[in-house]
Specification:
single chain, EC 2.4.-.-, 5-stranded mixed sheet, Penicillin binding protein transpeptidase fold, 5-stranded antiparallel sheet, alpha+beta
Amino acid sequence: MAFILRTFTGYMFIFIFLPIFIILISLSLSEASNVQSFHEILDERIELEDSKLSQTSYIKDRNDQIISEIHKPMNRTYLPSDKIPPFLKELFVLAEDQHFYDHLGFDLTAMGRALAINIQSSDIEQGASTITQQLARNLYLNHERSYNRKLSELLYAYEIERTYSKEEILDLYINTIYFQNGAYGIEAAANLYFQKSASKLSKAQLAFLAAIPNNPSYYDPVKNFDRTKKRQERLLKLLSDKGFLNQEEREKLVKEPVTVSLKTRIDKYADYTTYVEVELKELIRESEGFSKRLSNSNDKNKEHIEKELQTRFDEVLGSGIIIHTSLDPLLQERAKQAVKRHLPYTDVEGSATVINHSKNEILAMVGGKNYKKYDFHRAFQGYRQPGSSIKPLLVYAPYIERTQALLSERISADSFCINGYCPKNYGGGTYGMVSLESAFIHSFNTPAVRLLNTIGVEEGFKDLKHFDFNKVSKTDKVLPAAVGGFTYGMTSLEMASAYTTFSNDGSFRQPRAIQKVTDLNGKTLFEWKDKSVQVWSKSTTDKMRTLLNRVVTSGTGRKSYYPTSYIGGKTGTTNDYHDYWFIGLNEELTTGVWVGKDRPSNIKAIETTGPQLLIWREIMSGY
């Protein structure tokens, strides 16, 4: 019964709809007034979106080498018309749509023949799709096998023919079609299977690739090479039959060896490239006004703006861009290996961020011992209390800046209590009156709290505000912050960034991974326009550099020492030994290292080893 109904419906479609459709088109060509009316209806109902195809984007390192290919959503490199081999154009027209240059987007004779075959079957076996119809399906529709979709396809194809020239349609088609194994368009296919541009391929190789789109899974050149080769030979025979090749050339092309070698997608340095994508979104946010809109919106509007930003981010990544970064591959690999080598302990993790402080460039990042792309990234997502590593930023530099104190100035390292808050020195000891230098290099707690109390918590946080610590809140503005008591804390990226101020005469500019973003032709699309802010005077930072140096040469950071023109840093240990920090610098680099567990717990057992110091030394001493 179902088959009879299908047959009846099919014949009704042929005998009723097809003549009407032909009449409509005929009238549209002969009656000017009707043309306008018919076209107005199409224009109203069918809106052709921008036909700019999505393309593969790339991340490059500081040496201009590709380190990551981003296929969002498709692996495609658009090939301009003048770069598409004429041989390939002729081949696709002959193989897919021999009346391409004559029809209005659909071939009525072929459609009738296909319908007659399909109504005798329990499925849609023959499509009779023209190149324009296939383009309509790939750009605007889906691949559902139904008469409704087919009708939409016809209307879209007709509208495409009205909008674009035949040459433009053919170019779009060749850049749109699917070549299996994730490759869209001829250029991506050429690179995937032959590691060459399409313009560099032989005619035999081009014909081989042209064999795939007719049925990509069936003619998969990796799994079904013989099928693809046989179809290539049929296409070459078709060219010969139509007079585009002589017999001798056809035989030569058939015999030419075709070797497929599947290119592996480039995706190196996941720790770094994951952050690059995050920074790109932030760059778009700043460059296109999203930040300003978000700051002036309520919660409901913010959600809408964030969705709009995400759409724009996806659009930029899919447009075919090159993200030029500051990544130093050798330094990245050394930092990665240093974290793994010095953290052999179960569940103990680490992160590291390396910055060239003179250029404010992020050279390397480690998100964890065995970081995988898009996992939790400890270097920029791992917020932890900083312990004593915060003292240079919140206590000592602000105090010295405001009081012009000498490093020999004396401060009490005895017990201290105020409003019920009674901090203790490490081990509970008391040390009487000590110099600022001694208090700093031995990381005594009570002097730090006294110093912050002297200048006022608000004054200390005025300086800290310049560093844009993402999760510092009003509730953190209390005396315990002097020894690292924050609600959420900081990341190794944030801490290393802030410490660059000590190498730039008190000036701070946010370090970045991205140098610039260009299109595939080299035109600059986005660039950071960060401005420097003077946080402290050169006099203050000179004194801080002396203190930081003394920590490494004779204080809590001695294990990090290695001979160099300048070296300095600050350790940090949090309550109950949950976190170990070391943020330090030499003449060229500033590096922040964190060690701890993802679920905070006591790791005092590894304290004497000092893995954070060893990781830092290995990274810095090899540069």
